[in-house]
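Notebook entry, structure prediction.
Reason for the run: the old model in the group folder had no record of what sequence produced it. Starting over properly, with the input documented here first.
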Amino acid sequence: MKKKILALSLTGAMLLMATACSTSSETKPVDETYKITWDQSNTAEELEEVPDYQFLPLDMSNMITYGLSISVNLDLDEDGTYTLTSENVNSYDEEETTPEEEYEAKLVAVGKYTKNGDKVSIEKPSNIEYSYHSGEKFKETDAFNGMSYSEDGVDGSWTSSDEPDLLTHVPQSTFTIKDTGKIVSWEKTGN
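New structure, fully documented this time:
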């Protein structure tokens, strides 16, 4: 009798463990990095697929053909935290571009995420750091008005604690990703 009870107890414990182990690891936080870059090397069809927001103060998709590139990195940590980096820079040869000519807008957001299969959903970030350097080639154009958070439009660095409006540039979004580490696309799913 004791052996039957022990056998039943062990069987029950094994079933519970098997059920717990069969839970999809896809919904658990992971440690992975995904990236996508658009620049002049992309085809016209690929450039047409650039989402209308790139997690920056302005939609920069139409500026790629003018020598700028857009790069979006999504780093996922095992603790359920994401780091999203969106960068818009000169895509000119670094050897030919002087520091005075360099243009860069860079936003780094940190928040929570969930992953399910090839979908990663990010929540509104808890913190954003943003920096902007206009570069000599672009200072005279008004195409970049709105990229700076200073009243006179000069270069600088800001955080969402100082400029809460920065949080509007990273809405709740769902990314479609590939196992190869590539971001396929993203779409806004909330504010």
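Summary: DSSP finds three helices and nine strands in the chain.
The old model has been moved to the deprecated folder.
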